[in-house]
Amino acid sequence: MPIGIFDSGLGGLTILRALQQALPEQAFTYLGDNANTPYGTRDAYDVFDLTTRGTQALFDRGCDLVILACNTASASALHRMQVNWLPKGKRRVLGVFVPMIEHLTQRDWGDNAAPTHTGLENVAVFSTQSTLDSGAFPREMKFRARDVAVVGQACDGLVDAIEAGEDAVAAALVKIHVDKLLQRLPEPQAAVLGCTHYPLVEDLFRAALPAGTKLVSQPDLVAQATADYLTRHSGFAEIGGTTYLTTGDVAEVSKRASRFLGHGAEWEKIET
Ligand code: DGL
């Protein structure tokens, strides 16, 4: 069975690409809910509803392991899914949030020891409004690390600009949102791009942030964490290619996705 990768739209392709590089033989099925993007301006009930529908569609296509390649879904729906929705059995749903926090706090997977001083004093988090509202990042951080100031900045409009391929708008928005954050935290020690769409404009964030700020790359960390997970749960591994599914307009999605994938792909439209 392929591993299912789910996002509200094109952003999860940044995670998929890193996974394809780390696990070149593994079969994947990607689903972008382009018909309903963006999720980042929706409330938690809506995000839960859409995310469970997308995850179910991937389960129905034989993916027993689904990765929510979307911070908004990981932050506001994943916990509720695991507690109240996921049937007991072999199926699993993982998020993209925790690997990044484990990296920042130098923790191994599942290390639930008391929080420690890690040397990290502050971190800037750029995300959607829903992810910011969920409070998930500071909460997960506090479980592991003491005395870290987490300063969040919602990047309104950025996902839409990236999805639409409006490069000049995206560049202007990154500058505005980074400047707003720097007014509150002038020299961030580390910065997290807490939305899977944002690595597509990582160079803009890099240029707008101070040179001393360490920019954390979520796709590589998620790929590494998934490769480690598969060594412990080899039943989820299967050799094969990638299938691309979307709830949106196939012609439009394939045109935009090629820019991000670096190659063309055959997309199939599905309902969730
Ligand atoms: N790419 C997603 C994330 O990581 C969702 C963005 C959106 O749909 O607003 O948050």
Descriptive labels:
Rossmann fold; alpha/beta; 10 strands; 2 domains; globular; 272 residues; binds D-glutamic acid; 4-stranded parallel sheet; 6-stranded parallel sheet; 46% helix
3D structure, described in words:
There is one protein chain. The chain is α/β, with parallel strands linked by helices and 272 residues long. It has helices spanning 12-22, 44-60, 71-76, 78-85, 97-104, 129-134, 136-144, 158-164, 167-184, 202-208, 218-232, 250-261; strands spanning 3-7, 28-32, 65-68, 92-94, 122-127, 149-154, 190-193, 214-216, 242-246, 267-269. The protein has two domains: 3-96 and 219-269, Rossmann fold; 99-217, 3-Layer(aba) Sandwich (Rossmann fold), CATH 3.40.50. A six-stranded parallel beta sheet has the order 4-3-1-2-9-10, with helices on both faces. The longest helix is centred in the middle third of the chain and has 18 residues, at 167-184. Bound molecules: D-glutamic acid (DGL). D-glutamic acid binds at residues 7-9, 11, 37-40, 70-72, 128, 131, 159, 195-197.
